[in-house]
């Protein structure tokens, strides 16, 4: 590509950053970076009633969390209203747009009549051929008006080549004259979007298929404004398991990028998942580094069919798409320990269990790194280190009630056995995980109980969980004093 590639991500700040919007941003980011181009961030805030500063902040924060950096902006669409209106006036002056004085009531009555007569209910062009005198009279009468674009009276089809969907055609006769400026003088998205893309020299428009109804009309606006047509690529929609488009209104926080940040997901894990939610490399590869995805990504590998976000409301285990959870687990388990330590630190800080000697250069830094590596195989998110893994960092951890009943309280004799085991462990001159495990197994043989009876109870009281790392590793990590202290006070659970 000789021309510099320029793409944009233009979210509307009417709510949080949606995962569908994040996927669009990701595809644009990948395309720009792959071609050495520029990504423009433009906040399309023309819906003044619904746009909020909180939403703007949330969108920017979400993009930064995902590490989807931009090269220009953020620009705000409302800052360019004069440009939008100047474009509308040029179209009026050239006869490519006209003033329409039809009221909402008149338009609705005509629509209903057309439906009753089984005709096209679109605008009938009533004001299309008003004379200057008629326009002046209507204005003198105080009639408000909108500005409509005058669709060329041509036979045949309007077409453009879509990089995902191929050749898209629509009959000129099926395109009604559309509004570009409201009666209150506010320019509409259709016009603003085109004017902004022309000004920002956008070469490729990568956006959702829900914008396709706008695209044919915007193609006409590019032509009327004398600007070259950008390359379009309309990506598939993201649907739920009922084949309904995922939305903020219907699905709530589960479709918000912020939800995954707060839940302790890794930014790149979410990016990797979103990339495959509508694109595939054709090789079967699922896990990518940024560099690998930049090398593999292409518009022609974006699927034409809609993607499915496999979310089942009310599923406690799979509180979001299971594939996303699996991806996050993969990255947790393969992440460089130092990077993992950096990401876990704010989680422990928020939980009030961070210790300064865990920091780089601290006395227990290596223990901290080793503990993260030891425990991460059973965790789903970063937050699990402060919940399921809290016992490694603090003494005030919760014990799973079902596990406590099954593994501890079901055997009353453990009330005596575990404090005794605590004493034997305390007496070890050279403590190790292996030696501690052997003492436990020896006590099980001594008491004539089924293997695992005391061992499983010990794990439950030490970690609050039914499963976890291999016992020698667990015992080594927790250390002699903590183990002995926790086992010695088992009687509190039997009271």
Secondary structure blueprint with pairings:
Layout: E1 6-9, H1 19-34, E2 38-43, H2 53-65, E3 72-76, H3 81-93, E4 97-100, H4 104-116, H5 132-140, E5 146-149, E6 157-162, E7 166-171, E8 179-181, H6 189-199, E9 204-208, H7 212-224, E10 231-235, E11 238-239, H8 248-251, H9 257-262, H10 267-276, H11 290-296, E12 307-308, H12 322-334, H13 337-351, H14 365-375, H15 401-409, H16 414-426, H17 433-447, H18 453-463, H19 471-478, H20 480-488
Parallel strand pairs: 1-2, 2-3, 9-10, 11-12
Antiparallel strand pairs: 4-5, 5-8, 6-7
Short summary:
This protein is mainly alpha-helical.
Describe this structure in words.
The protein is mainly alpha-helical and 495 residues long. Among the domains are: 61 residues, Helicase, Ruva Protein, domain 3 (Orthogonal Bundle), CATH 1.10.8; 97 residues, Arc Repressor Mutant, subunit A (Orthogonal Bundle), CATH 1.10.10. The chain has a 3-stranded parallel β-sheet with strand order 1-2-3. Strands 4-5-8 form a 3-stranded antiparallel β-sheet. Strands 6-7 form a two-stranded antiparallel sheet. Helix 6 crosses helix 7 and helix 15 packs antiparallel against helix 18.
What is the topology, as strand order, of the major beta sheet?
1-2-3
| Computed CA radius of gyration, to the nearest angstrom | 32 Å
The CA-CA distance between the termini, in Å, is: 76 Å
Mean pLDDT, as a whole number? 94
- How many beta strands in the DSSP annotation? 12
